[in-house]
Amino acid sequence: MATSEKGILNRLYVVAACMFIFAVGVGVKLLDIQFVEGDHYRNLAEERTVRSFKIPASRGNLYDAKGNLLATSVPKYDIRFDAVTVSDKNFQENIVPLSNSLTEMFGKSAAYWSQYLRQARANGQRYLTIAKNLGYSEYMKVKSFPMFNLGTYRGGMIVEQRTVREHPLGKMGERTVGYERQDENGYFTRVGLEGAFSSYLRGTDGRRLKQKIAKGQWKPISDNNEVEPKDGYDVISTIDVNIQDIAHHALLKQLEYFEADHGTVVVMETKTGEIKAMSNLGRTETGTYFEKRNYAVYESHEPGSTFKLMAMTAALEDGVIDTSSVIDTENGVVRYYGRPVRDSRHGGYGKISAAKAFEVSSNTAFTKIITEGYKDNPAKFVDKLYDMGLNSKIGLDIKGEGSPRIPHPKDKNWNGLSLPWMAFGYGVSITPLQTLNFYNAIANNGEMVKPRFIKEVKEWDKSILKVEREVMNPRICSPETAKKLQKMMQQTVEKGTAANIYTPNFSMAGKTGTCQVEYWIEPGRYISSFAGYFPAEDPKYSCIVIIHKPKRSKGYYGNIVAAPVFKQIAQKIYTDTPVMDTLPSLDIQNDKVTDDFDAYFAKIDNEKIVMPDVTGMPAMDAVSLLENLGLKVNFNGTGKVNGQSITAGQKIKTNQQVNLNIG
């Protein structure tokens, strides 16, 4: 018996010892947690219940050149209710007047709001939604409601502010205005002006403490921020919303008519390089158009005949040709290594001057000019193009500029067809804005200025940065060469391939382009283009229009598809600030253009043109010239034109029948 009691007692001692050791272990651990690792666990607990949240700074405003908003940040407020923190007294005293106020502002009955709030209190809800996306004035009104006017703790009102970016232009110029977005991994996507100048617009974020309440919900601890956000700077762009509107709608109208795949228009101020408009429209599956990609900046492609200006510049500068040099177009077809180069006009143009070859855009003439002029040293031609900067990017602020490609004889893929094909814009690749930059330089008598998108960065009325005119190349060619090229481009509009857009009311200069694209997929896909400037005598704006893959049955030549867009843009810009003595045929009331702008523009668009004097011209040249003007020509026979049913200088409508009497 004694032995049994002794065994039990020993076991009790063991249990007691174990419990003592366990208690000591717990005590040691508690001391360790409290004093040794106390700071760590306190921080961990606080992190799980209280956290500092980022308050995005309000982005600066983006303006056009005349102070019109292109993008602005608008504060929006979400109102929520903490039904637990309000005392019974405050809740009971204010529930009825608060419900009445909410009814007055948001609708629904006072009974609905009373039941909604009481149910939240009964359920212990601490993050009840009252209203979302309120403007500032609406937020201030809600803040004055009974109970809510007691503040965060006594009144239970929770306010969360966020900033929404709005674009007053809507979808027009969307890719040009652009955006900055951040994905879930922290990577930024920056597009257009918003992306290019985000470092100025973004500002500095603030911080605000919030407390975790339930179900992953966080509510602000107080109405004040720990670190106040600093708003971004305002950016004044070079865009003119009026010109942007003109360019957008002129391009859209043409894309819709020709059912084209996509297109772009850029308008640049000649002397300064300021981009006044940039429209990029792509076709959807349903046949509508929207700002899909910034084709003007990123899309490098074969330019076709607009590249003839670059080829002619090199040839004139190197002295391998002069404007009066005569070239035989050989019935409109020449061959290189068995591959034909054809003129768009069947039978060619006979023997013509280099200047005439430019005006009528003769492929055969240009390929002969360049091939014969540089056959012994093709690198000289390409190096001249390189010297003019055609193989380099402009270096735009807007991201994603496409790379030009000008092949060189040192390249592995250079062959016998490279030089003749380059002469008329095949085998090379260049973006629309890079092409326009070159044309603008010729309009500037050889001085190439860098295209720019902003004028100034401001903080309120204080100027932070002014962006000045930048000269990329003071002389891509001699002033004498530039004058010759200007004359040829003006003649192209007056009596060349773009004669269909000629008007005596104001002068234009430029070059048409038509280029096959994706010919390895199927024939019949084209890029139609026109690049030029206006007025021809004293250029103020340069402009490029490129339309990809118009419906072939409706037309695909550059003068038919792209040039009319250029004309519409030029006309409407002129009518914004019309020079009265240059518009004698327009109806003027009290020295002002009639207020009905649409009717006024329709009058310009349908205006009669002046019949050119074709007496003495070869018959086929006369027919070609008149048809380019949009006239219906009744002609049979060969020989010289010695008379016509309408005298030269008489105004005629574009749909009028013209009879040529051939002697």
UniProtKB/TrEMBL annotation:
Alphabetized SMART domains for the sequence: PASTA
Record keyword Iron present: no
CDD domains: PASTA_Pbp2x-like_2 (cd06575)
A GO term from the CC aspect: plasma membrane
Xref: Gene3D superfamilies: 3.30.10.20, 3.30.450.330, DD-peptidase/beta-lactamase superfamily, Penicillin-binding protein 2a (Domain 2)
GO biological process: one example: cell division
Listed Pfam families: PASTA, PBP_dimer, Transpeptidase
Superkingdom of this protein's organism: Bacteria
UniProt domain PASTA: residue ranges: 605-663
GO MF entry, a single one: penicillin binding
Keywords: Carboxypeptidase, Cell cycle, Cell division, Hydrolase, Membrane, Protease, Transmembrane, Transmembrane helix
Annotated TM spans: 12-31
Compartments where found: Membrane
Protein name: Cell division protein FtsI (Penicillin-binding protein 3)
Source organism per UniProt: Salegentibacter agarivorans
